[in-house]
Design goal:
The chain has 2 domains: 2-158 and 231-280, D-Maltodextrin-Binding Protein, domain 2 (3-Layer(aba) Sandwich), CATH 3.40.190.10; 171-219, no CATH class. The model has no long low-confidence stretch (mean pLDDT 95). The chain is mainly alpha-helical. The chain is globular and about 55 Å long. The protein has a 3-stranded antiparallel beta sheet. The chain has a two-stranded parallel ribbon with strand order 4-5. It has helices spanning 22-29, 43-54, 59-64, 77-92, 103-110, 171-184, 187-197, 208-214, 218-224, 243-258, 264-280; strands spanning 2-6, 117-120, 144-147, 153-155, 232-234. Helix 2 packs across helix 4 and helix 10 (243-258) runs antiparallel to helix 11.
């Protein structure tokens, strides 16, 4: 997962967000806003926050090491420092509807030119192919550019699987399930998935047909191929914390981070307390 930006509103010259730090990128976008949200699971905000953690010293390894054993203590310097940077972004560069916004509100901010940047996955490419009633205020999907996040960060939980088999399945069902998973990971199916949904399979030698078809959507091609040998690939923060933290508490606490009620240290202490309560229960 990475980000999209409106090339009609932002001119980065011959650079891409991957070439810039978050500070440099924010300076380059000027008064344009980022589509953040605090409602639901704070999805777009969490993605930006994840990239901020990943570029901190030890941050990427911290995230990578907690996809199975979750983070309960949020006092790590990489997290506190990232919260401080997120606070500034939310206070100075967020779309006007950020507080209380759910995903639909964040997407609408981007597709109504009330924000020029949104962090999201490749599945959003379809929203920019044609106006399905989601565009307003002169938005034109053809001007959207795709990229990894500033700092050359892409988010992916490589310990995760798209399919799973219930433990209580019968032996016959397990056999069928394993056969299905094997089929879904054949080269042809992986290529079909990448064409439809985006993403990369770095160990797969793709076919010539795939190479040709992948260029039929310039935005998807740009988005997917923004990943390079130097890209920092780390899981999202939401994959590294108890579900109640990623799905609820993080977003619920963000308004108080925005208005200054919480310092970054206090915000992290509140997250730690909420996570510990989850562990005890």
């Amino acid at each position: 997962m990475g980000m999209f930006y409106n090339g009609d509103m932002i001119d980065l010259g011959d650079k891409t967000p991957a070439d810039m730090s978050w500070d440099e990128f924010v300076a380059a976008i000027g008064d344009n806003k980022i589509a953040f949200m605090t409602g639901e699971n704070a999805w777009t905000t969490t993605l930006v926050f994840s990239s901020l953690v990943a570029v901190e010293e030890g941050g990427a390894d911290l995230l990578r090491s907690h996809t199975l054993d979750k983070i309960y203590d949020f006092s790590e310097p990489a997290i506190v420092n990232a919260v401080a940077k997120l606070q500034k972004l939310l206070q100075n560069n967020s779309s006007s509807n950020t507080v209380g916004a759910v995903y639909a509100d964040a997407a609408n901010a981007f597709m109504s030119k009330n924000a020029a940047v949104i962090a999201n996955g490749s599945w959003m490419v379809g929203d920019f192919a044609e106006d399905g009633g989601k565009w307003s205020n002169g938005f034109d999907g053809s001007t959207v550019r795709g990229s990894v996040l500033p700092g050359n960060v892409a988010l992916a939980n490589t310990d995760g699987f798209g399919w799973w088999i219930p433990a209580n399945a019968s032996d016959a069902e397990k056999e069928l399930g394993l056969a299905f998973i094997a089929f879904m990971n054949t080269p042809a199916e992986l290529e079909a998935y990448m064409l439809a949904e985006g993403g990369v399979a770095p160990n797969l030698e793709v076919s010539e047909e795939y190479k040709a078809a992948s260029q039929e959507s310039p935005l998807m091609y740009e988005y997917v191929n923004a990943v390079n040998a130097d890209t920092i690939i780390a899981p999202s923060f939401g994959d590294c914390v108890p579900s109640s933290i990623g799905d609820q508490e993080f977003g619920k606490l963000l308004p108080q981070l925005i208005d200054g009620t919480y310092t970054p240290e206090a915000f992290c202490a509140e997250l730690s307390a909420a996570a510990e309560e989850t562990r005890l229960n």
